[in-house]
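Checklist before submission:
- one chain only
- standard amino acids only
- sequence pasted in full

Submission:
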Amino acid sequence: MSTSDLKLLALFFIIAAVIILRVTVESTGYRDPDSNAFLEVSQNILDGKGFYHSKTLPIPEIKTLENQTYFAIWPLGYPILISGFAYLLSLPVFWASKVVNIFFLGLCLLLFRKMNREYAYLLTLIMCSFTFMEIFSYTWSEPPFIFCLLWFVYLLYNFMQDENNNKYLILLFISSLLLFFIRYIGGFSFIILGLLSTWFLLKKRFKPALKLLSITILLSTIAGLYLYNNYIQTGYLTGGERFFPDRESTSLFVYYLFVGLFNELFVIRNYYWGNSNPDLLFWVTAIFQFSIMIFIYLRFIKRELTKISSEDNLSILFGIIGFIYLFVLILLRKYSPFDPFDYRLLSPFSICIYTALMLFLINPVRSTTINKSYKFIILFFFSSLILNLPKVYLFEVFRSLIQN
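Returned file contents:
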Protein backbone atom coordinates (compact mmCIF):
# COMPACT_ATOMS: atom_id res chain seq x y z
CA MET A 1 0.00 0.00 0.00
CA SER A 2 1.37 3.41 -0.99
CA THR A 3 2.06 6.19 1.50
CA SER A 4 -0.76 8.31 0.07
CA ASP A 5 -3.23 5.42 0.49
CA LEU A 6 -2.08 4.88 4.08
CA LYS A 7 -2.67 8.57 4.80
CA LEU A 8 -6.14 8.33 3.27
CA LEU A 9 -7.02 5.21 5.25
CA ALA A 10 -5.73 6.75 8.48
CA LEU A 11 -7.82 9.86 7.88
CA PHE A 12 -10.92 7.75 7.29
CA PHE A 13 -10.51 5.95 10.62
CA ILE A 14 -9.73 9.19 12.47
CA ILE A 15 -12.78 11.03 11.09
CA ALA A 16 -15.04 7.98 11.62
CA ALA A 17 -13.81 7.68 15.23
CA VAL A 18 -14.49 11.37 15.86
CA ILE A 19 -18.02 11.01 14.45
CA ILE A 20 -18.74 7.99 16.67
CA LEU A 21 -17.33 9.81 19.72
CA ARG A 22 -19.46 12.89 19.00
CA VAL A 23 -22.60 10.78 18.56
CA THR A 24 -21.94 8.77 21.72
CA VAL A 25 -21.29 11.80 23.90
CA GLU A 26 -24.01 14.13 22.57
CA SER A 27 -27.19 13.71 24.64
CA THR A 28 -29.43 13.79 21.56
CA GLY A 29 -27.22 11.41 19.59
CA TYR A 30 -27.29 14.08 16.89
CA ARG A 31 -30.99 13.62 16.27
CA ASP A 32 -33.61 16.29 15.62
CA PRO A 33 -37.29 16.00 14.58
CA ASP A 34 -36.25 15.33 10.98
CA SER A 35 -33.95 12.56 12.16
CA ASN A 36 -36.74 11.00 14.21
CA ALA A 37 -38.98 10.96 11.14
CA PHE A 38 -36.29 9.18 9.09
CA LEU A 39 -35.73 6.65 11.88
CA GLU A 40 -39.44 5.98 12.38
CA VAL A 41 -40.00 5.28 8.69
CA SER A 42 -36.91 3.05 8.62
CA GLN A 43 -38.25 1.05 11.57
CA ASN A 44 -41.68 0.79 9.95
CA ILE A 45 -40.06 -0.59 6.79
CA LEU A 46 -38.23 -3.21 8.87
CA ASP A 47 -41.47 -4.09 10.68
CA GLY A 48 -43.35 -4.49 7.41
CA LYS A 49 -45.60 -1.50 8.11
CA GLY A 50 -44.77 0.36 4.92
CA PHE A 51 -43.56 3.87 4.16
CA TYR A 52 -45.44 5.66 6.95
CA HIS A 53 -44.64 7.93 9.86
CA SER A 54 -46.57 9.62 12.66
CA LYS A 55 -48.51 12.78 11.97
CA THR A 56 -47.55 14.28 15.33
CA LEU A 57 -44.81 14.06 17.95
CA PRO A 58 -44.16 12.35 20.28
CA ILE A 59 -44.57 9.14 18.31
CA PRO A 60 -47.71 7.35 19.56
CA GLU A 61 -47.22 3.98 21.23
CA ILE A 62 -50.08 2.44 19.26
CA LYS A 63 -49.95 3.25 15.56
CA THR A 64 -53.21 3.42 13.64
CA LEU A 65 -54.37 4.62 10.24
CA GLU A 66 -55.57 7.80 11.91
CA ASN A 67 -52.22 8.82 13.42
CA GLN A 68 -50.00 7.68 10.52
CA THR A 69 -49.40 9.28 7.15
CA TYR A 70 -47.45 8.35 4.02
CA PHE A 71 -43.85 9.54 4.09
CA ALA A 72 -43.57 12.13 1.34
CA ILE A 73 -42.02 15.16 3.05
CA TRP A 74 -38.65 13.78 1.95
CA PRO A 75 -37.89 11.11 -0.65
CA LEU A 76 -37.66 7.52 0.59
CA GLY A 77 -34.03 6.97 -0.39
CA TYR A 78 -32.44 7.67 3.01
CA PRO A 79 -34.91 5.64 5.15
CA ILE A 80 -34.54 2.71 2.75
CA LEU A 81 -30.75 2.89 3.11
CA ILE A 82 -31.03 2.94 6.91
CA SER A 83 -33.45 0.01 7.01
CA GLY A 84 -31.25 -1.91 4.57
CA PHE A 85 -28.13 -1.45 6.70
CA ALA A 86 -30.10 -2.24 9.87
CA TYR A 87 -31.34 -5.48 8.33
CA LEU A 88 -27.97 -6.56 6.92
CA LEU A 89 -25.97 -5.72 10.05
CA SER A 90 -28.67 -6.52 12.64
CA LEU A 91 -28.38 -3.03 14.11
CA PRO A 92 -30.96 -0.69 15.65
CA VAL A 93 -32.02 1.90 13.10
CA PHE A 94 -30.30 4.66 15.10
CA TRP A 95 -26.85 3.09 14.78
CA ALA A 96 -27.61 1.91 11.25
CA SER A 97 -28.10 5.57 10.29
CA LYS A 98 -24.64 6.40 11.63
CA VAL A 99 -23.12 3.46 9.75
CA VAL A 100 -24.82 4.74 6.57
CA ASN A 101 -23.19 8.13 7.09
CA ILE A 102 -19.74 6.63 7.68
CA PHE A 103 -20.19 4.31 4.69
CA PHE A 104 -20.86 7.29 2.41
CA LEU A 105 -17.96 9.14 3.99
CA GLY A 106 -15.80 6.22 2.86
CA LEU A 107 -17.27 6.39 -0.65
CA CYS A 108 -16.45 10.12 -0.79
CA LEU A 109 -12.85 9.31 0.10
CA LEU A 110 -12.64 6.62 -2.60
CA LEU A 111 -13.98 9.13 -5.09
CA PHE A 112 -11.36 11.67 -4.03
CA ARG A 113 -8.81 8.92 -4.65
CA LYS A 114 -10.15 8.55 -8.20
CA MET A 115 -9.75 12.28 -8.76
CA ASN A 116 -6.19 12.46 -7.47
CA ARG A 117 -4.64 9.39 -5.86
CA GLU A 118 -1.50 11.07 -4.60
CA TYR A 119 -3.25 13.91 -2.79
CA ALA A 120 -6.64 12.35 -1.98
CA TYR A 121 -5.84 12.83 1.70
CA LEU A 122 -5.78 16.61 1.16
CA LEU A 123 -9.22 16.49 -0.45
CA THR A 124 -10.38 14.39 2.51
CA LEU A 125 -9.37 17.14 4.92
CA ILE A 126 -12.46 19.04 3.72
CA MET A 127 -14.49 16.62 5.85
CA CYS A 128 -12.76 17.94 8.99
CA SER A 129 -14.57 21.29 8.72
CA PHE A 130 -17.39 22.19 11.11
CA THR A 131 -20.03 21.85 8.38
CA PHE A 132 -19.16 18.28 7.44
CA MET A 133 -18.46 17.08 10.96
CA GLU A 134 -22.02 18.14 11.78
CA ILE A 135 -23.51 16.76 8.56
CA PHE A 136 -21.94 13.32 8.99
CA SER A 137 -22.82 13.18 12.70
CA TYR A 138 -26.54 13.90 12.31
CA THR A 139 -29.10 11.39 11.09
CA TRP A 140 -29.78 13.41 7.97
CA SER A 141 -29.95 12.57 4.28
CA GLU A 142 -27.11 14.93 3.38
CA PRO A 143 -24.20 12.42 3.62
CA PRO A 144 -25.46 10.15 0.79
CA PHE A 145 -26.59 13.26 -1.11
CA ILE A 146 -23.11 14.78 -0.88
CA PHE A 147 -21.48 11.60 -2.19
CA CYS A 148 -23.97 11.34 -5.07
CA LEU A 149 -23.37 15.00 -5.94
CA LEU A 150 -19.58 14.55 -6.00
CA TRP A 151 -20.05 11.39 -8.08
CA PHE A 152 -22.44 13.16 -10.47
CA VAL A 153 -19.98 16.01 -11.13
CA TYR A 154 -17.08 13.59 -11.62
CA LEU A 155 -19.13 11.50 -14.08
CA LEU A 156 -20.25 14.64 -15.90
CA TYR A 157 -16.61 15.64 -16.35
CA ASN A 158 -15.71 12.17 -17.66
CA PHE A 159 -18.66 12.15 -20.07
CA MET A 160 -17.58 15.52 -21.47
CA GLN A 161 -14.10 14.07 -21.97
CA ASP A 162 -15.39 10.88 -23.62
CA GLU A 163 -18.92 11.46 -24.88
CA ASN A 164 -19.01 8.15 -26.77
CA ASN A 165 -18.55 6.08 -23.63
CA ASN A 166 -22.04 4.92 -22.69
CA LYS A 167 -20.80 3.72 -19.30
CA TYR A 168 -20.61 7.33 -18.11
CA LEU A 169 -24.07 8.02 -19.52
CA ILE A 170 -25.60 5.10 -17.59
CA LEU A 171 -23.81 6.09 -14.38
CA LEU A 172 -24.92 9.72 -14.85
CA PHE A 173 -28.50 8.46 -15.04
CA ILE A 174 -28.05 6.42 -11.84
CA SER A 175 -26.32 9.20 -9.89
CA SER A 176 -28.92 11.78 -10.94
CA LEU A 177 -31.76 9.45 -10.00
CA LEU A 178 -30.19 8.78 -6.61
CA LEU A 179 -29.83 12.53 -5.99
CA PHE A 180 -33.58 12.92 -6.51
CA PHE A 181 -34.51 9.87 -4.41
CA ILE A 182 -32.42 11.20 -1.50
CA ARG A 183 -33.50 14.86 -1.64
CA TYR A 184 -36.07 16.43 -3.93
CA ILE A 185 -33.70 19.26 -4.79
CA GLY A 186 -31.55 16.57 -6.41
CA GLY A 187 -33.81 17.13 -9.40
CA PHE A 188 -31.59 20.12 -10.20
CA SER A 189 -29.25 17.55 -11.78
CA PHE A 190 -31.92 17.00 -14.47
CA ILE A 191 -31.61 20.69 -15.33
CA ILE A 192 -27.83 20.35 -15.64
CA LEU A 193 -28.16 17.38 -17.99
CA GLY A 194 -30.71 19.30 -20.03
CA LEU A 195 -28.43 22.34 -20.24
CA LEU A 196 -25.50 20.17 -21.31
CA SER A 197 -27.68 18.54 -23.95
CA THR A 198 -28.55 22.01 -25.28
CA TRP A 199 -24.86 22.97 -25.30
CA PHE A 200 -23.99 19.88 -27.37
CA LEU A 201 -26.87 20.71 -29.70
CA LEU A 202 -25.59 24.24 -30.26
CA LYS A 203 -22.17 22.76 -31.01
CA LYS A 204 -23.92 20.49 -33.58
CA ARG A 205 -22.77 17.40 -31.71
CA PHE A 206 -26.11 15.70 -32.11
CA LYS A 207 -25.27 12.23 -30.81
CA PRO A 208 -24.32 13.19 -27.21
CA ALA A 209 -27.09 15.82 -27.24
CA LEU A 210 -29.69 13.17 -28.03
CA LYS A 211 -28.30 10.78 -25.41
CA LEU A 212 -28.44 13.40 -22.68
CA LEU A 213 -31.89 14.57 -23.76
CA SER A 214 -33.15 10.98 -23.63
CA ILE A 215 -31.99 10.33 -20.07
CA THR A 216 -33.23 13.77 -18.97
CA ILE A 217 -36.71 12.94 -20.27
CA LEU A 218 -36.56 9.49 -18.64
CA LEU A 219 -35.41 10.96 -15.31
CA SER A 220 -38.12 13.62 -15.42
CA THR A 221 -40.75 10.97 -16.16
CA ILE A 222 -39.65 8.79 -13.23
CA ALA A 223 -39.58 11.81 -10.90
CA GLY A 224 -43.01 12.90 -12.16
CA LEU A 225 -44.48 9.45 -11.46
CA TYR A 226 -42.91 9.45 -7.99
CA LEU A 227 -44.40 12.86 -7.18
CA TYR A 228 -47.75 11.78 -8.62
CA ASN A 229 -47.76 8.80 -6.25
CA ASN A 230 -47.07 11.23 -3.40
CA TYR A 231 -50.06 13.26 -4.54
CA ILE A 232 -52.32 10.20 -4.60
CA GLN A 233 -51.17 9.20 -1.10
CA THR A 234 -51.18 12.61 0.61
CA GLY A 235 -52.92 15.11 -1.64
CA TYR A 236 -49.62 16.96 -2.14
CA LEU A 237 -46.65 16.41 -4.42
CA THR A 238 -44.21 16.46 -1.50
CA GLY A 239 -46.38 15.57 1.45
CA GLY A 240 -47.69 18.99 2.40
CA GLU A 241 -48.17 22.61 1.45
CA ARG A 242 -44.80 24.04 0.45
CA PHE A 243 -45.30 27.43 -1.18
CA PHE A 244 -45.52 30.44 1.11
CA PRO A 245 -43.96 33.25 -0.96
CA ASP A 246 -45.23 35.97 1.40
CA ARG A 247 -43.97 34.42 4.64
CA GLU A 248 -40.69 36.36 4.49
CA SER A 249 -40.08 39.86 3.20
CA THR A 250 -37.40 40.28 0.55
CA SER A 251 -35.13 42.09 3.03
CA LEU A 252 -35.50 39.30 5.60
CA PHE A 253 -34.87 36.67 2.94
CA VAL A 254 -31.67 38.44 1.81
CA TYR A 255 -30.57 38.74 5.45
CA TYR A 256 -31.02 35.01 6.05
CA LEU A 257 -29.13 34.23 2.84
CA PHE A 258 -26.28 36.54 3.83
CA VAL A 259 -26.05 34.97 7.31
CA GLY A 260 -25.99 31.45 5.85
CA LEU A 261 -23.30 32.20 3.27
CA PHE A 262 -21.31 34.24 5.77
CA ASN A 263 -21.30 31.33 8.21
CA GLU A 264 -20.02 28.98 5.50
CA LEU A 265 -16.88 31.11 5.35
CA PHE A 266 -16.04 29.93 8.86
CA VAL A 267 -14.59 26.49 8.33
CA ILE A 268 -13.66 25.72 11.94
CA ARG A 269 -16.62 27.00 13.91
CA ASN A 270 -20.02 28.50 13.14
CA TYR A 271 -21.45 31.55 14.86
CA TYR A 272 -25.12 31.18 15.78
CA TRP A 273 -26.49 34.62 15.05
CA GLY A 274 -28.98 36.21 17.38
CA ASN A 275 -28.18 34.05 20.42
CA SER A 276 -25.37 36.09 21.91
CA ASN A 277 -22.20 37.94 21.06
CA PRO A 278 -19.41 35.82 19.58
CA ASP A 279 -17.31 34.18 22.30
CA LEU A 280 -13.54 34.33 22.58
CA LEU A 281 -13.05 30.92 20.93
CA PHE A 282 -14.99 32.08 17.88
CA TRP A 283 -12.77 35.15 17.47
CA VAL A 284 -9.57 33.15 18.00
CA THR A 285 -10.54 30.50 15.42
CA ALA A 286 -11.76 33.15 12.97
CA ILE A 287 -8.49 35.11 13.20
CA PHE A 288 -6.48 31.88 12.93
CA GLN A 289 -8.46 30.74 9.88
CA PHE A 290 -8.30 33.96 7.91
CA SER A 291 -4.63 34.51 8.78
CA ILE A 292 -3.74 31.12 7.28
CA MET A 293 -6.05 31.64 4.27
CA ILE A 294 -4.58 35.06 3.46
CA PHE A 295 -1.04 33.75 3.93
CA ILE A 296 -1.63 30.76 1.60
CA TYR A 297 -3.28 32.99 -1.01
CA LEU A 298 -0.55 35.66 -1.06
CA ARG A 299 2.38 33.26 -0.71
CA PHE A 300 1.30 30.37 -2.96
CA ILE A 301 -1.96 30.83 -4.88
CA LYS A 302 -1.90 34.36 -6.28
CA ARG A 303 0.87 33.65 -8.77
CA GLU A 304 -0.93 30.49 -9.97
CA LEU A 305 -4.18 32.23 -10.96
CA THR A 306 -2.64 33.26 -14.28
CA LYS A 307 -1.84 29.62 -15.10
CA ILE A 308 -5.38 28.23 -15.31
CA SER A 309 -5.58 25.71 -18.16
CA SER A 310 -7.68 22.83 -19.47
CA GLU A 311 -6.10 20.72 -16.71
CA ASP A 312 -8.29 22.66 -14.29
CA ASN A 313 -11.57 21.75 -16.01
CA LEU A 314 -12.71 19.38 -13.25
CA SER A 315 -12.06 22.07 -10.66
CA ILE A 316 -13.97 24.62 -12.75
CA LEU A 317 -16.87 22.20 -13.26
CA PHE A 318 -17.23 21.67 -9.51
CA GLY A 319 -17.41 25.43 -9.06
CA ILE A 320 -20.05 25.80 -11.78
CA ILE A 321 -22.23 23.00 -10.40
CA GLY A 322 -21.91 24.44 -6.89
CA PHE A 323 -23.22 27.81 -8.02
CA ILE A 324 -26.03 26.23 -10.07
CA TYR A 325 -27.11 24.36 -6.93
CA LEU A 326 -26.99 27.62 -4.96
CA PHE A 327 -29.05 29.44 -7.61
CA VAL A 328 -31.72 26.70 -7.63
CA LEU A 329 -31.74 26.63 -3.83
CA ILE A 330 -32.21 30.41 -3.60
CA LEU A 331 -35.04 30.26 -6.13
CA LEU A 332 -36.84 27.43 -4.32
CA ARG A 333 -36.20 28.90 -0.88
CA LYS A 334 -37.66 32.27 -1.92
CA TYR A 335 -41.06 30.77 -2.65
CA SER A 336 -40.89 27.83 -0.24
CA PRO A 337 -39.17 28.78 3.05
CA PHE A 338 -38.82 25.15 4.14
CA ASP A 339 -35.55 25.47 6.10
CA PRO A 340 -33.17 28.25 7.17
CA PHE A 341 -30.05 28.98 5.14
CA ASP A 342 -27.66 27.05 7.36
CA TYR A 343 -24.81 24.58 6.95
CA ARG A 344 -27.26 21.74 6.30
CA LEU A 345 -28.95 23.43 3.36
CA LEU A 346 -25.72 24.92 2.01
CA SER A 347 -23.46 21.87 2.45
CA PRO A 348 -23.84 20.67 -1.18
CA PHE A 349 -22.75 24.14 -2.35
CA SER A 350 -19.85 24.11 0.12
CA ILE A 351 -18.58 20.66 -0.84
CA CYS A 352 -18.47 21.69 -4.50
CA ILE A 353 -16.59 24.92 -3.77
CA TYR A 354 -14.13 23.32 -1.32
CA THR A 355 -13.47 20.48 -3.76
CA ALA A 356 -12.94 22.94 -6.62
CA LEU A 357 -10.42 24.94 -4.59
CA MET A 358 -8.55 21.89 -3.36
CA LEU A 359 -8.40 20.34 -6.84
CA PHE A 360 -6.94 23.60 -8.10
CA LEU A 361 -4.22 23.48 -5.43
CA ILE A 362 -3.22 19.84 -5.94
CA ASN A 363 -3.30 19.87 -9.74
CA PRO A 364 0.07 18.57 -11.04
CA VAL A 365 0.33 21.57 -13.41
CA ARG A 366 0.83 23.86 -10.42
CA SER A 367 4.41 24.86 -9.65
CA THR A 368 6.28 22.82 -7.07
CA THR A 369 6.39 25.82 -4.72
CA ILE A 370 2.67 25.43 -4.06
CA ASN A 371 3.42 22.07 -2.42
CA LYS A 372 4.81 24.03 0.50
CA SER A 373 1.28 25.25 1.25
CA TYR A 374 0.11 21.71 2.04
CA LYS A 375 1.54 21.66 5.55
CA PHE A 376 -0.43 24.81 6.38
CA ILE A 377 -3.61 23.29 4.93
CA ILE A 378 -3.08 20.16 7.04
CA LEU A 379 -2.50 22.29 10.15
CA PHE A 380 -5.64 24.28 9.44
CA PHE A 381 -8.00 21.35 8.94
CA PHE A 382 -6.58 19.28 11.79
CA SER A 383 -7.14 22.29 14.04
CA SER A 384 -10.75 22.24 12.87
CA LEU A 385 -11.04 18.51 13.61
CA ILE A 386 -9.65 18.93 17.14
CA LEU A 387 -11.85 21.92 17.92
CA ASN A 388 -14.93 20.00 16.78
CA LEU A 389 -14.29 17.23 19.29
CA PRO A 390 -16.62 17.14 22.35
CA LYS A 391 -14.29 19.38 24.34
CA VAL A 392 -16.28 19.53 27.61
CA TYR A 393 -16.57 15.75 27.75
CA LEU A 394 -12.88 15.19 26.99
CA PHE A 395 -11.89 17.81 29.58
CA GLU A 396 -13.99 16.03 32.22
CA VAL A 397 -12.43 12.67 31.32
CA PHE A 398 -8.95 14.19 31.48
CA ARG A 399 -9.68 15.84 34.83
CA SER A 400 -11.05 12.63 36.36
CA LEU A 401 -7.94 10.74 35.21
CA ILE A 402 -5.67 13.30 36.88
CA GLN A 403 -7.68 13.28 40.11
CA ASN A 404 -7.59 9.51 40.28
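Reviewer check: The mean pLDDT is 89.
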